[in-house]
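User: quick one, fold this
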Amino acid sequence: MVAGLGGRASLRSMRSSDAPSGATPLSASTPAAEPPAPARPADPTARESGLPDNPWPALWALVIGFFMILVDSTIVAVGTPALMTAFDATVTQVLWVTSAYLLAYAVPLLITGRLGDRFGPKRVYLTGLTTFTLASLWCGISGELSSGIGMLIAARVLQGLGASMMTPQTMAVITRTFPADRRGSAMALWGATAGVATLIGPILGGVLLDRLGWEWMFFINIPVGIIGLYLAWRLVPTLQTHARTLDWVGITLSAVGLFAGVFAIQEGHSYGWGRIWGPISVPLLLVVGAVLLVAFVWWQQRVQRDPLVPLRLFRDRNFSVANVAISTVGFTITAMMFPFMLYAQVARDLPATGAALLLAPQAVVSILLAPIAGRLTDRVHPRTLAVPALLGLAVVTWLLAKVMTPDSPTWTILVVATLMGVANSFIWGPLSASANRNLPMDLAGAGAGVYNTTRQMGSVLGSAAIAVLMEARIAATLPGASTPTIAGGSGSAMPAPVKEAFATALGQAMLLPAAIIVIGAVAALFFETPRHQQRSA
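Assistant:
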């Protein structure tokens, strides 16, 4: 357009010089017209053209699948005794039903996020949801197909791979379909979904287990998956793809490095942090994982074309700060759930469903406050919301540790859970919106992959650290006892002094996640003003 204006100006100038002698020529004293302003470069963070005016239906379609895969990360926890009976398996073998899913979910996130940029988030999401739904069917019928638990574990690996394809795409679609000044509301819903799903899992698992059997913890995904597939196919727009080569060296280094590291951290406690098999040990895997991930970063600096993780992502301060903060959130939420559930079921002698219901106010409050948190996320500085909320979560976690006694009134736990829901509501939205708000559209998938990998790695570290700390505190307060021994018994048969000491040990362990989340609050102090707020100022 600027060029066209320049052309018309030149044409008028030519006509002026060719005018008849009676015309007044352009004199030297007449000020010349100002040259046209140079064209402004296109904003790489701007929303793509040709998208629906209302992106909310697409988001709701994606939330169905996102909710389902997060529920599946916790739903199986309540089915451990039933699976041990059905497959004649040990506790360690049954724990692999969950561990295999989380491992297959966490490791490929960097890769699947980048695949969304290459092939389109809608296509990758639909592929992942189809894989997840079919794998759920395989999980449900694995007891009929085989007498061993190995087939169920293999099906859970396939489920995890499907989930890893879906998660980055939900965040990437939000980034690419919502304008920057409306993205906070969408991210608040996305964050509330993540928080609620982890609580609904044990409740839903307990109901299905009691009424229909363990198979329905997986069969329930089939109708939900079919509905999610149809809605995503109809409502999610087909976004522009970006021709890229696949960074096979980066893919190999990241996949093997993350697998070695995550496996060692996740399973190290069960192997006593020593030898696993033959010459392979937990320390060896930790070293191999660290070396390969350092090599991965070095390679990403060297590769010139289409790296798996463009390191220029981290030039955006808010992206880097949000990744540090969300890793502490993943750590804290995961580390907090383990001792609390153990306390509720053993020290208070509650069934798994009853234990999960103690935290139900957190889910309710998160849903109710999500719209308010979203609007504030779009309007105020992310530091204003994230820092108080993260510090509030630290205080609430400390309060929860204080009320974790065998005879504490139930209403005190429900009040603390309500306050926890308030804090969580103002954490997920600001962090996730700040992580991607300034990113170019062609890096939305890569950014989502990094963010979700960071969150999941925080969760893995949290589960490993809290297991070690719980074991240490139980050994200190109850010499000669161990977590598996006590957890396998009945709370009603436990003497009152033992219950008291056990609850005290778990409450002391809760101080670790309370301390870690403070690190996230310190990191959030370094958020800068988002660009959409700078432009509107």
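User: anything notable?
Assistant: The mean pLDDT is 81.
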